[in-house]
Amino acid sequence: MPQGTLYIVSAPSGAGKSSLINALLRKFNLDDSLRLSISHTTREPRPNEVNHESYHFVSIPEFEELIARDAFLEYANVFGNYYGTSKEIINEWLSQGKDVFFDIDWQGARNIKAKMPDAIKIFILPPSLSELQRRLISRGQDSPEVISKRMAAAMSEISHYDEYDYVIINDNFDESLLQLRSIILSTRCKLDRIQENQQQLFADMKRQAKEYEEAWLPCASALSAALAAAKQDAAAKDAAAASTASAAQADTSAADASTAPEATEAAEASSTETATENPQA
């Protein structure tokens, strides 16, 4: 089974990474090839968040028990709340050929990249810090103190953008979504990914090329030799025809030359006879 690709998407809070990932899964996952890693967290659910869909919401003791069991690919404490990613489900999806998305901060991204170096990292930037602050305020979910902390954390998060493979500036949502999708499509067209996912196709093409070479090259060599011989024969015939034409022309010229004196004598005799018959002329 072809291996899927792991995508790490990071951004400061309010840049729109979760909205972009969710839109990607909603609009461009018709073949069911995309998965979003659902993290475990100890924070309280926000409005409209659903357990086991948005996050796996667990208590602090439950989370720490999972840490003790080494169940997480990575985990971190952010603003006093734990966040972590399960190893088992991620490896299962990748082995099924699914592309898996991680919605995590730069620290988690660095930890996962160290364990899974083939992962592709994408950073989402806001068009400006003032726009980022406006988005955080417009959510109406956090107090001014929390927003202030989030802006400070955003500065730290943004400072790590150059550790990523791709950067998307989310000024226009639709354009940013298409850019995100383009990254996925271009990755799927990479040579190593195509070779891995289409092993049977390449094996069949290689085998068929060898069979063609073994079956048809001898015939091609014989045909080439026959064509060369025919070309030589045609050239010989052309040369013979040219020689015959040249000889015929030479014979004609010689015959004309031999009859020329006789014609002259006949003409002179005719002229003399005419003069004798007409003495007064």
UniProtKB/TrEMBL annotation:
GO molecular-function annotation terms?
ATP binding; GMP kinase activity
EC numbers on record: 2.7.4.8
Q: SUPFAM superfamilies annotated for this entry?
A: P-loop containing nucleoside triphosphate hydrolases
Chain coiled-coil ranges? none
Highest taxon in the source lineage:
Bacteria
Note down the stretches annotated as region Disordered. 240-281
Q: Where in the cell is it found?
A: Cytoplasm
Q: Give me the reactions it catalyses.
A: GMP + ATP = GDP + ADP
Going by the UniProt record, its keywords in alphabetical order are: ATP-binding, Cytoplasm, Kinase, Nucleotide-binding, Transferase
GO cellular component terms, semicolon-separated:
cytosol
On whether Hydrolase is a keyword of this UniProt record, the answer is no
Positions of the Guanylate kinase-like domain: 4-185
InterPro entries, per the entry: GK/Ca_channel_bsu, Guanylate_kin-like_dom, Guanylate_kinase, P-loop_NTPase
Q: Which Gene3D superfamilies match?
A: Guanylate Kinase phosphate binding domain (3.30.63.10), P-loop containing nucleotide triphosphate hydrolases (3.40.50.300)
Give binding positions for ATP.
Answer: 11-18
Question: Which PROSITE patterns does the UniProt record give?
Answer: GUANYLATE_KINASE_2
**Role according to the record:** Essential for recycling GMP and indirectly, cGMP.
**Family, per entry:** Belongs to the guanylate kinase family.
Database matches in PANTHER family: GUANYLATE KINASE, GUANYLATE KINASE-RELATED
Question: Which HAMAP family does the UniProt entry name for this protein?
Answer: Guanylate_kinase (MF_00328)
Q: What is this protein called?
A: Guanylate kinase
UniProt lineage: Bacteria, Pseudomonadati, Pseudomonadota, Gammaproteobacteria, Aeromonadales
